[in-house]
């Protein structure tokens, strides 16, 4: 029954070679968020909740960048399979233009209209001034991070995931050190608290960008060619928008949908405690899914490479193996998370963040739901981000990913929490329904074989 998993040592070695650097990169990025949360959380629940709300907007920017990376990688991985480096340069050029323009727009909006924007996310007057001070500064960090993200994402698609690992490791060290200096006023620096965390983030993103520029000038494996990088031809631009735009829209709508859950929580009774609990549980969740995201991103690289190289006959079983591996990985992680949420996390971790008993109870509830849903979420992520997108089935992947959230789960969550005034459990009941719908649609599409497409061929 599971004979498709018997793929030989070379397959699993290649999977580990590609996935492990991505896993460690994701772990570094996530650990950085955890460190930020820990340091800001030591200031109290209000600063923690304020930064969590401000980061809703930052999360959306990150998802747009991720969407550009994913949309570019759909093309780049298949062009890499063909060996067409000029086309890869053109794809990266379009990504640079779009990432820079979008992040600049977000940064300007957060700088000039912070109170209006933060006011849409929460009506808690204690949190708004703190969130505004953080958002006005940290928004500019994504001017640099967006360009770095497109570049490292391209190298990941060209089977060079170690670059991102090295760059983000340097960023984590910089951010952590500056957090310690600026949040708490160490080494003679002023005590800036929440704004210090924002300055540290901005500085670390600048460091990322500088490292990227130096690497791009010295790298010989893949050279940037300004003549084609900044002048992509019309056909390539059209192809980019045809295949990358649905991914960007998908990530934006998914990010907005995920943020809507937090907005709903921000308008519930006891929102400060709920948001503080969600901030902690969200960071723990992010750490738990790094392996899943690594498998999903690696799947996109492998599927795109195989299709681009013309090996279509083996792609279906290859994708089935990767989906199954992801599901099993999620089952193991989810089981460990549920056990941890009811044993050592409340005793060891929650006190570090100064959570009240109410917030601690809410965090345990949230993590229990997250753990139980982890196998389905793992399958959904790999199937959508890795298999369907890697196979060029961009539009259907977007429909599956977004429709379950916006048409089913968010209306249910809003109805339960804001109309019926039920507690946080019911928001996560709505999340459960989302995953069930998404996995059902994903399995049906996968079994159709219609997702296998060579999008680099002329006229595609």
Beta-strand level of the residues, as a percent range?
Answer: under 5%
Question: So what's the overall shape?
Answer: globular
Mean pLDDT: 88
What level of helicity do the residues show?
Answer: over 70%
Unreliable stretches covering 5 or more consecutive residues: none
Order of helices and strands: HHHHHHHHHHHHHHHHH
Give the biggest sheet.
none
Structural class: mainly alpha
Rg over CA atoms: 21 Å
The separation of the N and C termini measures 35 Å
- Count of DSSP strands: 0
Total helical elements: 17
Description:
The chain is 81% helix and 0% strand. The relative contact order is 0.13. The longest helix is centred in the N-terminal third of the chain and has 38 residues, at 45-82. The model has no long low-confidence stretch (mean pLDDT 88). Helix 2 (45-82) runs antiparallel to helix 10 (234-266). It contains 17 helices and no strands. It is mostly helical and 460 residues long.
Keywords for this structure?
mainly alpha, 460 residues
Q: Secondary-structure blueprint of this entry?
A:
Blueprint: H1 9-41, H2 45-82, H3 85-112, H4 114-121, H5 128-138, H6 141-157, H7 162-184, H8 194-218, H9 226-229, H10 234-266, H11 271-288, H12 290-308, H13 315-341, H14 345-349, H15 357-390, H16 394-419, H17 424-447
Helix pairs in contact: 1-7, 1-11, 1-12, 2-3, 2-5, 2-6, 2-10, 2-11, 2-12, 3-5, 3-6, 4-5, 5-8, 6-8, 7-8, 10-16, 11-15, 12-13, 12-15, 13-15, 15-16, 15-17, 16-17
């Amino acid at each position: 029954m599971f004979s498709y998993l018997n793929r030989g040592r070379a397959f699993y070695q290649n999977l580990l070679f590609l996935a492990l650097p991505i896993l460690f990169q994701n772990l570094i990025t996530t650990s950085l968020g955890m460190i930020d949360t820990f340091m800001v959380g030591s200031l109290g629940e209000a600063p923690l909740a304020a930064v969590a709300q401000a980061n809703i907007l930052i999360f959306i920017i990150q998802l747009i960048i991720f969407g550009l990376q994913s949309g570019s990688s759909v093309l780049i991985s298949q062009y890499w399979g063909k060996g067409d480096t000029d086309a890869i340069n053109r794809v990266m050029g379009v990504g640079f233009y779009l990432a820079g323009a979008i992040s600049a727009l977000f940064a300007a909006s957060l700088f000039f209209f912070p109170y209006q924007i933060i006011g849409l996310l929460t009506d808690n007057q204690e949190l708004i001034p703190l969130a505004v001070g953080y958002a006005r500064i940290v928004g500019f960090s994504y001017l640099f991070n967006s360009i770095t993200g497109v570049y490292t994402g391209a190298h990941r698609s060209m089977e060079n995931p170690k670059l991102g690992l090295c760059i983000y490791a340097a960023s984590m060290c910089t951010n952590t050190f500056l957090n310690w200096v600026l949040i708490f006023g160490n080494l003679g620096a002023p005590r800036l608290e929440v704004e210090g965390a924002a300055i540290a983030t901005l500085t670390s993103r600048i460091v990322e960008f500088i490292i990227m520029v130096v690497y791009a000038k010295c790298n010989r494996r893949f050279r940037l060619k300004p003549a084609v990088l900044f002048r992509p031809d019309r056909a390539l631009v059209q192809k980019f928008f045809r295949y990358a735009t649905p991914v960007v829209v998908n990530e934006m709508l998914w990010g907005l949908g995920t943020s809507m859950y937090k907005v709903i929580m921000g308008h519930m009774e006891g929102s400060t405690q709920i948001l503080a609990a969600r901030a902690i549980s969200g960071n723990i969740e992010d750490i738990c899914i790094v392996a899943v995201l690594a498998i999903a991103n690696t799947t996109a690289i492998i599927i795109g490479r195989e299709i681009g190289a013309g090996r279509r006959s083996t792609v279906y079983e290859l994708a089935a193996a990767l989906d199954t591996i992801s599901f099993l990985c999620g089952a193991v992680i989810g089981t460990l998370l549920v056990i941890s949420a009811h044993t050592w996390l409340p005793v060891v971790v929650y006190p570090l963040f100064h959570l009240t008993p109410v917030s601690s109870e809410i965090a345990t509830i949230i993590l229990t739901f997250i753990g139980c849903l982890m196998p389905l979420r793992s399958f959904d992520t790999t199937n959508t981000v890795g298999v369907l997108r890697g196979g060029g089935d961009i539009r259907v992947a977007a429909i599956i990913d977004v429709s379950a959230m916006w048409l089913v789960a968010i209306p249910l969550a809003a109805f339960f929490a804001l109309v019926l005034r039920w507690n946080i459990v019911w928001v996560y009941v709505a999340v459960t329904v989302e995953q069930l719908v998404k996995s059902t649609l994903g399995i049906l599409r996968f079994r159709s074989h219609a997702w296998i497409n060579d999008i680099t061929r002329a006229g595609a």
